[in-house]
């Protein structure tokens, strides 16, 4: 397995809509394994293929508690949210492509997602809590959306400005009033 490079804001590829996967084969499964290794090493709980520069509708997720050390990866190929609850839920979200920035985002508390698994079999699950938030966050990536798009325009523009400036100067953006180099 190989660790992949995660692209970060302001990379325009993050705004690209990902393409449907036409075939699940050994090459795709190797890529899924590479994505999973990259996600764990980052560390993160979800990763969309577009975040490693591949515009295909592929997601890896693992929201299992780390207390027992057990990994419970979930692979979603061509995921589609087919139902969402009316009940809202608020989680503090972060993103491997927007490092060190976190904000509360309101999303449906539960979703039903249909997808192909790593063997190409059609699956459907109902996700609640953190898993529901993570699924929605990652599907947003596949549609060229970021979690900051759920914030006020003022907050979103501030984050984009800071990451754009940091990319130009080779520094890390700072969100606590002090500069990080």
From TrEMBL:
Enzyme class: hydrolase
Cofactor: Fe(2+)
UniProt cofactor note: Binds 1 Fe(2+) ion.
Entry's Gene Ontology BP terms: translation
Family annotation (InterPro entries): Peptide_deformylase (IPR023635), Peptide_deformylase_sf (IPR036821)
Keyword NAD: no
Keywords: Hydrolase, Iron, Metal-binding, Protein biosynthesis
GO MF, any single term: metal ion binding
Reaction catalyzed: N-terminal N-formyl-L-methionyl-[peptide] + H2O = N-terminal L-methionyl-[peptide] + formate
Pfam families from the UniProt entry: Pep_deformylase (PF01327)
Active-site residues, record numbering mapped to chain: 138
Role this protein plays: Removes the formyl group from the N-terminal Met of newly synthesized proteins. Requires at least a dipeptide for an efficient rate of reaction. N-terminal L-methionine is a prerequisite for activity but the enzyme has broad specificity at other positions.
Family stated for the protein in its record: Belongs to the polypeptide deformylase family.
Protein name: Peptide deformylase
Lineage: Bacteria, Pseudomonadati, Pseudomonadota, Alphaproteobacteria, Hyphomicrobiales
């Amino acid at each position: 397995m190989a660790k992949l490079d995660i692209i970060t804001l302001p990379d325009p590829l993050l705004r690209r809509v990902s393409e449907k996967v036409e075939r699940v084969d050994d090459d795709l499964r190797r890529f899924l394994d590479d994505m999973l290794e990259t996600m764990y090493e980052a560390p993160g709980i979800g990763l969309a293929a577009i975040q490693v520069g591949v515009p295909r509708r592929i997601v890896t997720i693992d929201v299992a508690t780390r207390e027992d050390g057990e990994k419970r990866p979930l692979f979603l190929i061509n995921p589609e949210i087919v139902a969402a609850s009316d009940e809202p839920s608020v989680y503090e979200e972060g993103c491997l492509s927007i490092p060190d920035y976190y904000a509360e985002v309101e999303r449906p508390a539960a979703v039903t997602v249909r997808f192909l698994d790593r063997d190409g079999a059609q699956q459907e699950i109902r996700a609640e809590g953190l898993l529901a938030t993570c699924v929605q966050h990652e599907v947003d990536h596949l549609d060229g959306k970021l979690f900051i798009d759920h914030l006020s325009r003022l907050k979103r523009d501030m984050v984009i400005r800071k990451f754009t400036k940091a990319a130009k100067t080779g520094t890390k953006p700072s969100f606590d009033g002090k500069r990080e180099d």
